[in-house]
Specification:
- The chain has 13 helices and 18 strands.
- The chain is of the alpha/beta class and about 375 residues long.
- It folds into 2 domains: about 1-175 and about 340-375, Quinone Oxidoreductase, Chain A, domain 1 (Alpha-Beta Complex); about 180-320, 3-Layer(aba) Sandwich (Rossmann fold), CATH 3.40.50.720.
- The longest helix is centred in the last third of the chain and has 13 residues, at about 325-335.
- The protein starts with a strand and ends with a strand.
Length: about 375
């Protein structure tokens, strides 16, 4: 079938993207779903910094590539072997498919699925194939999803079924921002009621982490960013304290306000400086979690003696250390009960044709979550 999709032809195009147009809206051929695959009519797809990092070259991927990885949609057709979904089902797409058989999957850590990770780097579905093409030439998939399109063929293992009455523009956010942010707090950091938490970087993932800290019962939540507009929103969403990372004494002020630092600091800015700040504001015996993806060439410098003598923990978090089939329904339930107001993160809905200008707004910090919707 023919579809319309946003295709990245070359990374590293200059901003403003509204002028350079790194994403071209093209008509592609989408092959039918193969064994274990599903055809989904995309309902909504969120713009995330992971997409932006591919556009600007911070996260190199093979091109041409149809972008988009945070999405929801409606099942239209099933490939051979898919028996637990039906046409009409509503689904959230997950950007790391899990094979269920490799060692990380067997250990209950599907975010680290080895075949899933290899397929994402190669630009294929987890089965190794590509279902997108233009003029007979293959087009790469983005993280097994490629949801900036009206339709997508994805692995069954990239889908989690959700209730049909959940608005698709809200459901999409659970595929990345909520999984990554809330998961980093409740799964990776293991935040418990009464603890102190800091979130460094207040994009869609960071504000999701803040919401997760509120839902987990954290006593004190410090929100850190360089934009006053985001600090203001963080207060509205439940932050008890805010700090501007641009201030020279930011770390000292946070440590003083929290009596020596927070139990857990979660960095989601994708910056080595942000991670170093998060580490500095973590107390002795505390945990620093990094869920932000910086450029592969970036490194951090930490004092080894302090790591040992203060019994610090430094942990990475990918997909929020989540088991999507377990955690998405849990997080949706919290949303329905008003304990995880994910809808507050939705800045606006846009048309596919406006996507380049929308990425300018994301790069400039003018938006939290913009979502492409399809008729």
């Amino acid at each position: 079938m023919e579809i319309r999709a946003a295709v990245l032809g070359e990374m590293g195009q200059p901003r403003p993207y509204a002028e350079s147009q790194p994403l071209r809206i093209e008509r592609l051929e989408l092959a039918p779903p193969g064994p274990g695959e599903v055809l989904v009519r995309v309902g909504a797809a969120g713009l995330c910094h992971s997409d932006l990092s591919t556009i600007n070259g911070d996260r190199p991927r093979p091109t041409p590539m149809a972008l988009g990885h945070e999405a929801s949609g409606i099942v239209e057709a099933l490939g051979p072997g898919v028996e637990d979904l039906s046409p009409g089902d509503h689904v959230v797409m997950v950007f790391v498919p899990s094979c269920g058989h490799c060692l990380p999957c067997a250990e209950g850590r599907p975010a680290l699925c080895e075949p899933g990770g290899a397929a994402s780097v190669a630009g294929t579905l987890i089965g190794g194939g590509r279902r997108l093409s233009a003029g007979g030439a293959g087009i790469n998939h983005h993280l097994g999803v490629s949801a900036f399109a009206d339709h997508a063929v994805v692995s069954r293992n990239s889908l989690v079924k959700v209730d049909r009455d959940l608005p698709l523009e809200h459901a999409a956010l659970f595929g990345c921002a909520v999984l990554t942010g809330v998961g980093a707090v409740v799964n990776t950091a293991g935040v418990r009621p009464g603890e102190t938490v800091a979130v460094v970087g207040l994009g869609g993932v960071g504000l999701s982490a803040l919401l997760g800290a509120v839902a987990a019962g954290a006593e004190r939540i410090v929100a850190v960013d360089v934009l006053e507009s985001k600090l203001k929103l963080a207060r509205e969403l439940g932050a008890t304290d805010v700090a501007n990372a641009a201030d020279a004494d930011c770390a000292d002020r946070v440590r003083e306000a929290t009596g020596g630092g927070v139990n857990s600091a979660v960095e989601v800015a994708g910056s080595e400086k942000a991670l170093e700040l998060a580490y500095r504001i973590t107390r002795r015996g505390g945990t620093t979690v990094t869920a932000g993806l910086a450029h592969p060439d970036r490194h951090v410098s930490l004092q080894q003696a302090g790591l040992v003598a203060e019994e610090r923990t430094l942990k990475g978090s990918y997909v929020g250390s989540c088991v999507p089939v377990r955690d998405i329904p849990r997080f949706v339930s919290l949303f329905r009960r008003g304990r995880l107001p994910v809808d507050r993160l939705l800045t606006e809905t846009i048309a596919l044709d406006d996507i380049n200008a929308a990425f300018d707004r994301l790069a400039e910090g003018q938006a939290i979550r913009q979502v492409v919707t399809f008729d």
